[in-house]
Design a protein that fits this description.
Layout: E1 11-16, E2 30-35, H1 41-47, E3 51-55, H2 63-72, E4 78-82, H3 89-99, E5 104-108
Parallel strand pairs: 1-2, 1-3, 3-4, 4-5
Length: about 120
């Protein structure tokens, strides 16, 4: 699992899908919940999150949609993509990285029922 550098209490932009809350990390953080329809380059620049978390697939968006917005605003922090257990998550991660080479995309699985994902490792 790739380690990323984060401040002690990172600002975490968590992308929700309607009534379904966005994923959140299993470590101390300052949450910034946002509905997918409100996610745009202006919001990302104003909030300046340390990382963004989204679902791989959900009813209102998928990780490709979120990655397009982040690429448009030249986001340079990690995009954590949360997903239930997949048979080959590395294949999906490679595919996302190939489509969005400017983003630091990390898959996190499995998602716990609470919406929390396995811990993001720190150095």
């Amino acid at each position: 699992m790739k380690a990323i550098m984060l401040p002690p209490d990172p600002l975490t932009l968590s992308v929700a899908a309607g009534a379904e809350p966005g994923p959140v990390p299993d470590h101390p953080h300052v949450p910034i919940p946002v509905e997918y329809h409100a996610l745009d380059p202006g919001l990302v620049r104003r909030t300046a999150p340390d990382l963004v978390m989204c679902w791989l697939l959900c009813a209102r968006y998928d990780a490709v949609d979120v990655a397009r917005v982040l690429t448009a605003c030249r986001f340079e922090r990690p995009l954590i993509v949360a997903t239930p257990a997949l048979p080959h998550p590395a294949v999906v991660e490679r595919e996302l990285r190939a489509q969005f080479p400017s983003l630091d995309i990390l898959m996190r699985s499995p998602v716990k029922p609470s919406g929390r994902v396995v811990p993001v490792m720190r150095n």
